[in-house]
Amino acid sequence: MNSPANPINTADLYDERAEDVESxxxxxxxxxxxxxxxxxxxxxxxxxxxxxxxxxxATPGDGAVLVVDGYGSLRTALMGDMIAESAVANGWAGVVxxxxxxxxxxxxxxxxxxxxxxxxxKKSSKVGRGEVDIPLVIDGVHIEPGSLIxxxxxxxxxxx
Length: 160
Description:
Blueprint: H1 10-17, E1 21-24, E2 29-30, E3 37-45, H2 51-57, E4 65-69, H3 81-89, E5 94-101, H4 104-107, E6 113-119, E7 131-132, E8 136-138, E9 141-143, E10 148-152, E11 155-159
Parallel strand pairs: 3-4, 4-5, 5-6
Antiparallel strand pairs: 1-11, 2-6, 3-7, 3-10, 8-9, 10-11
C-alpha cells in the first residue's frame, strides 16, 4: 500500500476520508525502521503468550499488517528481533502490538513498521493461547481482519 517514495500520511487521509476511518487514540510508540506503513489487517488476541505471533509472522504476509491485542500488558514482550526478522523475510508491512516488544534497538534497524506501547526484556510464555483472525476492539476502535490500517508517526487509522 505504502511505498517509501509515496507514504500515506494519516493526517491527510483523515482530512480526506474522516467518515471512512477511525483513529486509535492510544499513544503507541514507533519502534520499527519504517515510519509509514499500511495494509490489510490480520489479527491476534493473546495475553503474555507470543507463540501465535511467531507462527503467524512466519507465514507469507503479502504486505499485511498484523494487529496484536495483548490487552495492553507491558509485563512481557510479544515480539523480539528474531520474530521481527521473520516478519521482514515473509513480506509483512508491519506489526501493531497493544502490548510490549523487546530488542527495540535491533527492531529499529529492520525494514518493518512496528508500533507498540513500549518494551520489556522479559520473554512471554509460548503455550499458544489466543485467537487468530478475529475482530478486535482496541481503544474503542473495531478492527476487522481484512480491513485496511494506516500507520505513521501521527497515529493509526483503521477503515470502518
